[in-house]
Write a structure and sequence with these properties.
By secondary structure, the protein is mainly alpha-helical. It has a single domain (about 1-80), classed as Cytochrome Bc1 Complex, Chain D, domain 2, CATH 1.10.760. Helix content is about 80%, strand content about 0%. The protein has five helices and no strands. Helix 2 (about 10-25) crosses helix 5 and helix 3 packs across helix 5. The mean pLDDT is about 85. It comes from Paenibacillus aceris.
């Protein structure tokens, strides 16, 4: 996981794989978004940003209220689920 967090493209690839797995497992988009929000909360609280992109995401996360954070989580899912 540490390697995944150091390179943003690897993080997006990792997230895309998990979103795909969740979809194949029958999870709804809403459930996937809720999980992305929970992951975002965990990362913001427990993981120091490893690169510029993660620092920007953390700053956006920290600046937002709960609705903003949920939107950011949905956008991250959309970013990696383009295919």
């Amino acid at each position: 996981m540490a390697t995944v967090l150091k390179v943003f493209d690897k993080w997006k690839e990792f997230l895309a794989e998990r979103v795909s797995q969740a979809g194949h497992a029958g999870m709804s988009d809403e459930t996937i978004s809720k999980l992305a929000f929970q992951i975002g909360e965990f990362l913001a609280d427990k993981v120091d940003p490893e690169n510029e992109q993660e620092r920007v995401l953390k700053e956006l996360w920290d600046a937002g209220d709960e609705q903003d954070k949920r939107t950011l989580a949905r956008l991250m899912v959309k970013l990696v689920d383009k295919g």
